[in-house]
Amino acid sequence: MQQTAAEGWEAVAEWWAAWGQPIGIVLVIVGAFIAYWIVKAIVSRVVHEVVTGVKRKADAADTEALANSPLAQVRVVQRTRAIGSVLNTLAGWVIGAFALIVILSILGVNAASLVAMAGFLGAAAGVGAQGIIKDFLNGLFMVFEDQLGIGDTVDLGEASGVVESVGIRVTQVRDVHGTLWYVRNGEIVRVGNESQGWARVVIDQAVPYEADIDAVTERLLDVATAMSEEPEWLGRIIDKPAVWGIESVSAEAVVVRLVVKTRASAKYEAGRELRRRVKEGLDELGVTLPSLQKIVVKGMEERA
């Protein structure tokens, strides 16, 4: 009986010696796929919950409109999905590398050789793909830090316009002429974003030197205040208009500065409408505007 048991164990040992390595490799591969599937399911679940939460909050109250605008919701969804995609990719590489090391260990490869090979491959990748790695890391930080998002009006130095796509490697920006620019994230060293938070409409209105400045100032403020109180603009103008005073004085004209704080997405629309109303208001006041060729505006925007 004991001999039979010994023979049985010996047969099992022989079978394992013959098939142990292939079975171990298969188990490692299956385990890697299962681990990746679990991580991917968790990340997908988190992304889904965030996106669902954003959609649920879409009907925000007016007082929360600035922080919960459709643009802000798109940015949250986009950033969440981008981060989820990055995490899935990162998890796949980490799990794959770990599985490869385990498989090579099963095959009897020396651990020191694995470390040397990994160092060599890492050095080769670092030399040959510096640009791609730089693009990837910069794009990752831009997504994480919410520096820009779809629909934003931005100035990236080489290109400016409306952002149409934010990728991990390339950002697409369409300028005012309709040209679509593909900007590598690694080449972006500064981002001027005109669509985050709030914006300010600044109107430097030139009036004749002999005009009644107090009357002009009062009319500008009345026009802007009346516009801000209309239902159409109530949610887009977020603060009381103000006249900052005289910006510059010349022999031909006096420049008065009017400012209105708006939601970032409403800056240009509100500015165009306000300029039209300012013109009508000054016409009613009987103020004849001087020639623009004779005016030199000086102030904090002088260089522009």
TrEMBL record:
Residues 202-287 form the Mechanosensitive ion channel MscS C-terminal domain. One of its GO terms (molecular function) is mechanosensitive monoatomic ion channel activity. It is found in: Cell membrane. It holds the Pfam family MS_channel_2nd. Gene3D superfamilies: 1.10.287.1260, 2.30.30.60, 3.30.70.100. The chain crosses the membrane at residues 19-39, 85-108, 114-133. It is a multi-pass membrane protein. The keyword Transmembrane helix applies. InterPro entries: LSM_dom_sf, MS_channel_C, MscS_beta-dom_sf, MscS_channel_2nd, MscS_channel_C_sf, YbiO_bact. Its main location: membrane. GO terms for cellular component: plasma membrane. Keywords: Cell membrane, Membrane, Transmembrane, Transmembrane helix. Residues 132-193 form the Mechanosensitive ion channel MscS domain. Belongs to the MscS (TC 1.A.23) family. This is Small conductance mechanosensitive channel. The lineage of its organism: Bacteria, Bacillati, Actinomycetota, Actinomycetes, Micrococcales.
